Amino acid sequence: MFNLKRARWALFLVSTLLAGSAYAQTVKIAFIDPLSGLLGPVGQNQLRSWQYIADIANQKNWAGGPKFEIVGFDNKLSPQESLTILKQVEDQGIRYIVQGNGSSVALALADAVAKHNARNPGKEIVYLNYAAVDPDLTNSKCDYWHFRLDINSDMKMEALTTYLAKDKSVKNVYLLNQNYSFGQAVARAAKEYLARKRPDVKIVGEDLHPLAQVKDFAPYVSKIKAAGADTVITGNWGNDLALLIKAAKDAGLNDKFYTYYAATTGVPTAMGAAGENKVYYVGYWNVNNEKFVGADLAMGYLKKFDDDYYTMATYTGVAFLAKAFKETKSTDPVKVAKALEGMKVQSLNGEVEMRKSDHQAQQSVTIAKWVKINGKTVKYDQEKTGYGWETEVVIPAYVATQPTSCQMKRPG
């Protein structure tokens, strides 16, 4: 009897130690985004951003045991390449993926992850979307295993057009966007929301151009000038926005630019002084905002990589995962996904909630304007230009929120 009790006790200790060691493991997260080509510089910056925040989380033990390791995969901005990488990720036993550049890629990945999880119980994958903002991803095509950390394009356009509507100098608007699901969603929302808020504003032109293929935007700028536009609304990002801004500067176009991604790699340099008081962006964070935190992180990133930290969703994503690991005492995607629903974390822009109904992060929305640094409202510049972003308005999360048509199907 004594030996039997001792054996059971030894078995209990071994199982406890094994469980503890499993929980304290390093969790690999696959980063699937472009690391080469015209949009490679943006992807490289964002991969470093994920790795930078993961290192901080590891040093400060955010997760209470588990460590993070971000592994980069170059999808060349291709949905098909991304699906090939997803298969490699599955084969390597990686259970978490992050992606953000390109809603066409996001839609393909979300569908593939859902099918994989349905067919492979016990090998589930959680997908954190940090920048692909097509509204369908948290509406008609929502999925339980997909969690969006960014605000979607309709939320951004709602905020942007509310701000723009107060500017009576805006009379003639030109819409220029990339020709895929996200760009199409931006154009649709701009027309719909402007018609509701400023019916006097005219849409004097609209173009959809190939994604990451246009090397000279001068012809588009000529069309904007010919149309008599005073304002351009664009969801362009990466090199497509940098080249557009450069072409506008070269042509002496004095229009205002309302953008989603003017704070991303290459665009600040392309704007320089020519963009002063003319270029705006709508997003979820601005380092030049005394109500927010994160300037120390941004300066640390600049010192380490000689580059700017702007993808705040990387902080939010690691914070969510760390809290889920800690609360569930597990890194099992099934338990973590359930814990993420409705979870709230403190990020660099205040409280962020992962809404349970559609897995759309609810958070404040910021609109900022490109101005010269002044040591007061703008202390930090971008890309060593001497110019940075001045916060115009911060819209609280409860104001920025929008309804969803998501009919979430949960496992079991």
Protein model, in words:
This protein is 41% helix and 20% strand. It has 412 residues and is an alpha/beta fold. The strands form three sheets. It has a seven-stranded mixed sheet with strand order 7-6-8-9-10-14-15, with helices on both faces. Strand 11 and strand 12 (350-354) form a beta hairpin.
How are the SSEs ordered, and which strands pair?
Elements: H1 2-23, E1 26-33, H2 40-60, E2 67-74, H3 79-91, E3 96-99, H4 103-119, E4 126-129, E5 146-148, H5 153-164, E6 172-178, H6 181-197, E7 202-209, H7 218-226, E8 231-234, H8 239-250, E9 256-259, H9 267-271, E10 279-283, H10 295-305, H11 313-328, H12 333-340, E11 344-347, E12 350-354, E13 361-362, E14 365-372, E15 387-395, H13 397-400
Helix pairs in contact: 2-11, 3-4, 5-6, 11-12
How many β-strand runs? 15
Order of helices and strands: HEHEHEHEEHEHEHEHEHEHHHEEEEEH
Helical percent range?
40-55%
Number of helices in the DSSP assignment: 13
For this entry, give a set of tags.
alpha/beta; single chain; 15 strands; 412 residues; 41% helix; Rossmann fold; seven-stranded mixed beta sheet; five-stranded parallel beta sheet
State the gist of this model:
The chain is of the alpha/beta class and 412 residues long.
